[in-house]
Write a structure and sequence with these properties.
The protein is α/β, with parallel strands linked by helices. The protein has helices spanning 11-23, 41-44, 76-89, 183-192, 229-234, 238-250, 264-280, 288-291, 308-312, 369-372, 406-426, 436-450, 480-488; strands at 3-7, 28-32, 96-97, 100-108, 113-120, 125-131, 133-136, 158-161, 175-179, 198-202, 209-210, 303-304, 317-320, 324-327, 331-334, 339-341, 344-347, 361-363, 367-368, 391-393, 429-434, 495-499.
Length: 551
């Protein structure tokens, strides 16, 4: 089980490209990326104000920290450059195939491989290739799309999705409409307001505007937030920087209580946000009643919105909650019959929230993953689905714990997959998939847990696929720390295995009863068969005789 494909070269694909070759000896890894370079969302998004709403020092690889972030909340281009630099350092580009779009994946039972239909985007040709294992690292929001309003195709002005920003578009002095108030919509409004003559902001749902995610520092501001020269110089001392990182990143693993319904932590957030939002909209106080949600904070993803509320309070901005009915050739009509002319429309309407891959994945006799995940995704621990052998996910449904940091979550899930692949390779396993019984138990546990949380209140979010009341698939049923511990010790009894041996004897991999090192008779120098012998003061009994790489 050597031929492994990773689909996607965002943060997940880059991390897999680094860790898997180190943790799984003999793996032949190919990373398939539809774009011309690595970086994922940070390569694709270039709209005004694009930056991470999480501090850069916790949005970096835990094993490749960067003391040189120029801003506390880095701009998208700096994040892109950082991850591309990490990919170069660790040899990811040597395993990468860019401009390669996956069209379809079909399981071939006879060879126990996935046949991927691929498109060479640059050469405009299609071909197929087989892999023993496929790892989907396509990200949570991998397929942006324009909203499907009547008449949108007849609109003659400038129409773009924020994720498909036109770098040649100049909004200066124009009338512009922005649809959507998620993370990108909030950033676009805050950054366009000062440039345009008029801005119509269409927001279907109210949302809580936070100062920060974890109460870190003073939170986001619209202006760049720089560290002092003295602080940056102190980071040059590895001990000082490590202490800073642990204290700073530790804040993101707290506040888990705030997702529990009627908890004191959540009530406190509500009051904090109400006070902050009222202060920031004091120049247009009538806005507040249209902005404050009925649902609790954290039901939808919190959005630190520096400059957003202040922009809404300006005289050249109209905040419109009335639903859109249709587009005309030069404007937008809402359901109350009002038409507003506009020269440009920027759709910040997100991407697919159902977490379905943007290409069909099929097992003959079983059906497609798209059918198996309709109406709701169905996974074991967010990593695999019954009846879809040798297919695993990074950041899949229910695969990311609330609180914590994204890079750490990706690293621990990639490590879990490495344990799985190492077991499969060393024990001559042909196919693996979680059992339906184990998956059903996980789903039942998850549903019972989520019932206690604010995520099951009546909000529309990517956690429920944009369907209030639907099952929660956007989060792990527990904290990020909880998930990290669960991943440490895989429950192999929850998996179903077939073997390469014709007899299907699970012990066929025992071979001739000798290790490969013992077979090196006459080798010079002779193989070390007693690697376990060490100086007593160098032995840590907690991991003694458990080091997989020291045999």
């Amino acid at each position: 089980m050597k031929m492994v494909a990773v689909i996607g070269a965002g943060i997940s694909g880059i991390t897999a490209g680094i860790l898997l070759p180190i943790k799984v000896p003999g793996i032949q890894l190919t990373i398939l990326e539809k774009n011309a370079d690595v970086g994922g969302t940070w390569l694709e998004n270039s709209y005004p104000g694009v930056r991470c709403d999480i501090p850069a020092h916790v949005y970096q690889s835990t094993f490749e920290p960067n003391i040189g972030w120029t801003e506390e909340y880095a701009q998208g281009s700096e994040i892109r450059d950082y991850w591309q630099r990490v990919a170069r350092k660790y040899g990811v580009y040597g395993r990468l195939r860019v401009n390669t779009k996956v069209i379809a994946a079909e399981w071939v039972k006879e060879t126990a491989q996935w046949r991927l239909a691929l498109e060479d985007v640059a050469a405009a040709r299609t071909y197929s290739e087989e892999f023993d294992v496929v790892i989907a690292a396509i990200g949570r929001f991998n397929a942006w799309k324009l909203p499907e309003y009547p008449g949108i195709e007849s609109y003659s002005g400038h129409l773009r999705h924020a994720s498909n920003w036109d770098p040649n578009f100049n909004p200066q002095g124009k009338s512009v409409a922005v649809i959507g108030n998620g993370a990108s919509g909030i950033q676009v409004v805050a950054n366009l307001q000062k440039l345009v003559s008029r801005l119509d902001h269409y927001a279907r749902s109210p949302t809580w505007i936070a100062g920060s995610f974890a109460g870190e520092g003073k939170g986001r501001k619209l202006e760049p937030s720089y560290y002092s020269p003295e602080t940056l110089r102190s980071f040059e001392d590895p001990a000082v920087y490590l202490e800073f990182r642990k204290k700073f990143e530790g804040k993101f693993y707290g506040r888990f209580e705030t997702i529990l319904r009627d908890s004191e932590g959540n009530k406190k957030l509500r009051e904090e946000f109400k006070t902050s939002m009222a202060e920031r909209t004091k120049d247009k106080p009538e806005l507040l009643e249209h902005l404050l949600p009925d649902f609790s904070p954290n039901c939808r993803r919190l959005t630190p919105g520096p400059g957003y509320l202040e922009a809404l309070a300006q005289q050249n901005v109209d905040f419109i909650r009335t639903p859109i009915a249709e587009f005309t050739t030069d404007g937008i009509v809402t359901t109350d019959g009002v038409e507003r002319k506009t020269e440009a429309v920027i759709c910040c309407t997100g991407a697919n929230t159902d977490m379905l891959p943007p290409f069909p994945i099929t097992v003959p006799g079983i059906g497609s993953l798209q059918d198996a995940w309709t109406p709701d995704p169905y996974t074991y621990l967010g990593v695999a689905t019954p009846s879809f052998p040798n297919l695993v996910f990074i950041q899949g449904p229910n695969g990311t714990g609330y609180s914590g940091t994204v890079p750490n979550q990706i690293e621990t899930q990639t490590t879990y997959i490495a344990l799985l692949l190492r077991k499969a390779a060393s024990q001559h396993i042909k196919t693996f998939a979680p059992s339906k019984a184990a998956t059903d138990d996980f789903v039942a546990y998850s549903d019972a847990f989520f019932a206690r949380t604010v995520w099951t209140e009546g909000c529309r979010s990517w956690a429920n696929g944009g369907r209030p009341g639907a099952r929660i698939h956007g989060h792990w049923p527990g904290s990020a720390s909880h998930l990290n511990i669960v991943r440490r010790n895989p429950r192999w009894e929850d998996w179903e295995w077939t073997y390469k041996s014709e007899t299907q004897n699970r012990f066929a991999y025992f071979g001739n009863g000798r290790t490969s090192n013992e077979s090196l008779d006459g080798a010079d120098p002779p193989p070390d068969l007693v690697k376990y012998l060490k100086r007593p003061d160098a032995i840590d009994l907690r991991i003694y005789h458990e080091e997989w790489f020291d045999v």
